[in-house]
Design the sequence.
C-alpha cells in the first residue's frame, strides 16, 4: 500500500522562535498589528510504501526521529492516509 | 475575539522541489528506501485578534498574499479556530 504522511514540525513551546518574532514585526510594519504571536515551523508531505498503517506509522516515526526533526528543540506530529500509488501531491 | 490560524504553505505541484528531492536521497541513504516523494513546505501558527471569523479570514488571506507566501510558486491554505486570548501555542 502507499500512504501519504503529512508531517508538522515546530519548535517546542518553550523554545524561543526568532523567525516567528521577525514575522510579527514584519506584519506589524505592513499594518497587520492585530497579530500577537507567530510560530514558524516546517511542513512536509511524504509518500511511502508500507504493508499496513501501523508499519507506515513506525517508519515515519523513525524518519522523524532520525533525520527530519531535531527532537531536542522540536516536536512533530503527522497524519497518514492511504493513497493510490500513482497519485501525485 | 482571538483566533488561531494554522497556515500551510507549499510549493505548487508543478514547481520543482529540490529540498524535497534532497530529503528523499538522505532518507534513502539512511535505509528508508520506501519513500517515493517528498514535498517540503512551511507551517505557521498565528494568533490574531479580529471581530469575527470572516474578518479574521480576510486578514489572514491578506497577510499570506502580502508577506507570508510567494503566490507565484506557492499555494497556501489555513484553518481558523477561536481561542481564549491568554492561551499560548
Sequence:
Amino acid at each position: 500500500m502507499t500512504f501519504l504522511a503529512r508531517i508538522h514540525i515546530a519548535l517546542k513551546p518553550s523554545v524561543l522562535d526568532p523567525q516567528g518574532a521577525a514575522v510579527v514585526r514584519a506584519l506589524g510594519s505592513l499594518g497587520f498589528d492585530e497579530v500577537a504571536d507567530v510560530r514558524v515551523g516546517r511542513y512536509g508531505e511524504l509518500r511511502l510504501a508500507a504493508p499496513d498503517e501501523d508499519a507506515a506509522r513506525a517508519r515515519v516515526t523513525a524518519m522523524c526521529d532520525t533525520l527530519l526533526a531535531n527532537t531536542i528543540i522540536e516536536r512533530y506530529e503527522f497524519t497518514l492516509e492511504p493513497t493510490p500509488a500513482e497519485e501525485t501531491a
